[in-house]
Structure formats: C-alpha cells, structure tokens
Amino acid sequence: MKSPARILIADDHTILRAGIQALLDKQPDFQVVGEVDNGKDAIYSAGQLKPDLVISDLSMPGTNGTEAIQRINNRYPEIKILVLTVHKTEEYVHAALKAGANGYLLKDDTSDELINACHNILAGKTHLSPSICGDVILGYLSSPKSSEKRTSSTELLTTREREVMKLIAEGSRNKDVAEYLSISLKTVEKHRSNMMKKLHVHNVSGITSYAIKNGLVT
Known about the structure:
By secondary structure, the protein is an alpha/beta fold. It has two domains: 5-149, Response regulator (Rossmann fold); 153-213, Arc Repressor Mutant, subunit A. 53% of the residues lie in helices and 13% in strands. It has eleven helices and six strands. The chain has a six-stranded parallel β-sheet, with helices on both faces. Helix 5 links the parallel strand 5 and strand 6. 38% of the residues are buried.
C-alpha cells in the first residue's frame, strides 16, 4: 500500500491551519506532518520533516511566504509547494510562480479545489485557482519577458536585504532583526544601508511605505 503524501502547512492564522489539517486528515492519501506560523520555520521544517508538499500563505511575519518558497525550492527542489492566499493580483501570482510554487489557490476557493490542487501538484502538474483571471495566467505563461519588465524594483535587492526590509517595516529594531536572522548587528546595518541606497529611501517611514507598496508587508 502506498504511503500517504506528507504535508506541511505554513500560515500565521491558527484557526485556518487547524481547518486545513482537519480537511486533509480526512483524506487517506494525505498526512499532515507539521504546521508553522512563519516563513522562517517553514524553511527549517521543510528541511527537518522532508514533506512531499508544503501549503504556504504569502503574508506571514518575519520571512514572508515568497521568500520561504524560493529558499525551499532552492534547497529542496523535490518538495512541491502550493500557495494558499487571499492575494489574487498579477504581481503576487507572478512572484510566487517565479519563486518556485507549483500551484496557486485563493482562500475563498472550495475545499474540493484544495484537495484537487494537492493531488494534481503531487502528480507533477501545475494547479492554478479558477478564480484567478485567465489573462493573468496567459500573460505569465506566454510573455515572460514582458512580465519581467513589470517586476518590482525589489528585484534589485538580495534575499537578505528583502528580509531586513520586511522586518524593519514590521517595526523591528536593528537588534531584533539581527537576533531573528541570526546575524550580527553590524551585518544588519550594512544590509539596511545597501537596501536604502538601492531604493532611494532615507528613513524607516520610507522603508515601511515601500514595503507596503510592494507587498512585502500588509
């Protein structure tokens, strides 16, 4: 008998995680092996638990979902990733798929749609929410060059600089950022300085406004 697919859930809403787990536990071919509430723990748990599939939100505290997807995909390419989010705009869809997501669902899709998405992705297919405008998907698949032209200027930043920006925008002090990312205070200050120069912002208010505008924080 084939072993059930191992699934990790990453979402910062406790009730939603519980609901997803309850739904998946009813399926004999699925086994929820862990749940986390932020991107940093999602990356760590992916390495420790080696799930077949990660179901991840995009907006989470600390390391956001898009960054987590990219890191999981780079380190563990065998792990499939399904985005489950409220964000339906073109920028979010493109960013998630570019980061390495295998599927993209909206939180107002049906439970049957979630089950189907898990099955399809585990079978090696791509699954996209029927609620997402067809033009968005068609534009991404047929015109990757034009999509790249619309890429946010946050592409200028390194992964670490984007993490520092997000944490600062969420109200963390440099000391808090250093502790969260397990790096020195001096390194945080360097990343912060480089990031501000690249984006032409000059203070915390500018960082926060830019992060909100570009979807790094909500």
